[in-house]
Design brief:
By secondary structure, the protein is mostly beta strands. It is built from 4 helices and 22 strands.
Length: 282
């Protein structure tokens, strides 16, 4: 089942951050991308499915793949894959980098949630991305756009979640779910490139052009620039931060001559059931 997640207003996809001590105290800022981390989507789905009594709080979220950026007009449908850092690579031959003018800059004050008071001298800055501006850059007069994911859900839950609004991304900004019929996804494949769509959790290797996990491996090459690895957080589970792992950033093409459909379905690396290491063919 394909779900299109569309923020109701500008949203925050923060992939990491830095802090420094200033005269006024500490200030946090971060690294922002045009698509969310899989851990952000996992939390969004968990909230949606529990609130709608589709799963219980202790149940895992069904397997999902993505995210992609999807936009359509009256005459055109376009898929875009994340090209880290801060870029989207689209199958209509448009490749864009997020423009600073597409962000709203907000200043906030840290809160002590237990004492319900502000933290003295602690301020932070957030950059809220307007996805509609991205959509209109890809297609003029875009009528529908958002973060597209493929989730293993039964059709009978469609009416429960279609139109549901849930907190999504930083600052828990609201976003609306649309269940979309996407049987013609194959018609959108134009380049036939096998690309990494989300960070892949992999084992460390000496050869940057080969990634491995368990007893599997695959050859990769950079789309542009260089192959990038970063230590990533797997998110939070029950209020506790999960482990930090080595992540291959979505900047690469997979050199797969056979079994393209298999690697498309399974992804690469660890924790693919949680969206890490998703693969897209565009």
């Amino acid at each position: 089942m394909y779900l299109l997640i569309t923020p109701i207003s500008s949203t925050i996809f923060r992939w990491g951050g830095v802090s420094s001590i200033l005269i006024s105290g500490s200030i946090n800022t971060g690294y922002y991308e045009p698509l969310p981390l899989p851990s952000t989507i996992y939390g969004f789905l968990k909230y949606t499915l529990v609130i709608n009594n589709i799963i219980k709080d202790n149940d895992p979220v069904p397997k999902f793949r993505g995210p992609l950026f999807y936009v359509e007009s009256e005459t055109e449908k376009v898929l875009c894959v994340h090209s880290y850092p801060q870029k989207l690579r689209c199958n209509n031959d448009i490749n864009i980098k997020t423009d600073e003018g597409w962000y709203e800059h907000r200043l906030g004050i840290g809160l002590d949630r237990k004492k319900k008071i502000t933290k003295e001298g602690y301020i932070y800055m957030e950059k809220m991305l307007n996805l509609q501006l991205i959509a209109n850059k890809i297609i003029s007069k875009a009528k529908r756009y958002g973060v597209l994911i493929d989730v293993s859900l039964d059709e009978h839950v469609k009416d429960k979640i279609n139109g549901f609004v849930a907190p999504f991304g930083g600052e828990s900004r609201p976003a609306k779910i649309q269940v979309i019929d996407f049987d013609d996804v194959g018609k959108l494949i134009r380049r036939n490139e096998v690309l990494l769509a989300s960070p892949a959790i992999v084992d460390p290797r000496d050869d940057d052009n080969i990634v491995s996990w368990d007893d599997k491996k695959v050859n990769i090459e950079a789309i542009e620039g260089k192959i990038t690895y970063r230590v990533v957080s797997l998110g939070f589970e029950r209020g506790k931060r999960s482990q930090m792992k080595l992540g291959l950033m979505p900047t690469v093409k997979l050199n797969v001559e056979v079994n393209k459909n298999s690697i498309f379905q399974e992804g690469i690396g660890y924790l693919t059931d949680r969206g890490w290491g998703s693969v897209c063919i565009i």
